Amino acid sequence: MARPSIKTRCVADTYADKSCERIAEFSAPNGKGGLIAIRQNSDGTVTVHVYRLDDGVEVVASADHMTVAA
After folding, report:
1. In the 8-state DSSP scheme, what is residue 67?
2. Which of 26, 55, 66, 67 has the greatest number of CB atoms lying within 10 Å of its CB?
3. What is the pLDDT of residue 54?
4. How many CB atoms lie within 10 A of CB 22?
5. How many other CB atoms are found less than 10 A from the CB of residue 68?
6. With 70 as the cut, is the pLDDT of residue 70 above it?
7. What are the Cα distances from residue 9, in Å, to 6, 24, 47, 54, 56?
8. Beta partners for 36?
9. CA–CA dist 3, 15 (Å, integer)
């Protein structure tokens, strides 16, 4: 089975804040994927935002560090 891929030089990254953020596109061989934005905040925390998800993509994270956006 083929492995999923991550494209770090994607169009979405041109819209990232170049001082503190990186956006990458991910996709699986079945064509499903989405975007991941990783941001270094001024208080030292790191925020990972997963968005633009195709139907059939599930996000799993530790509940201790999870915030669900509306």
Report:
1. -
2. 26
3. 96
4. 14
5. 6
6. no
7. 9, 7, 20, 20, 24
8. 24, 50
9. 27
CA distance linking residue 5 with residue 26, whole number of Å: 6
Token pair recorded at residue 19: 């001082």
User: Are the CB atoms for 21 and 39 separated by under 8 Å?
Assistant: yes
Does this model's pTM top 0.70? My answer is: yes
Residue 19 DSSP label? T
CA 62 and chain centroid, separation: 16
pLDDT digits (tens, 9 = 90+) for 13-59: 999 999 999 999 999 999 999 999 999 999 999 999 999 999 999 99
Both structure tokens of 30: 């079945």
- Could you give the CA distance from residue 25 to residue 70 in angstroms, rounded to a whole number? 22
63 or 25: which leads in pLDDT: 25
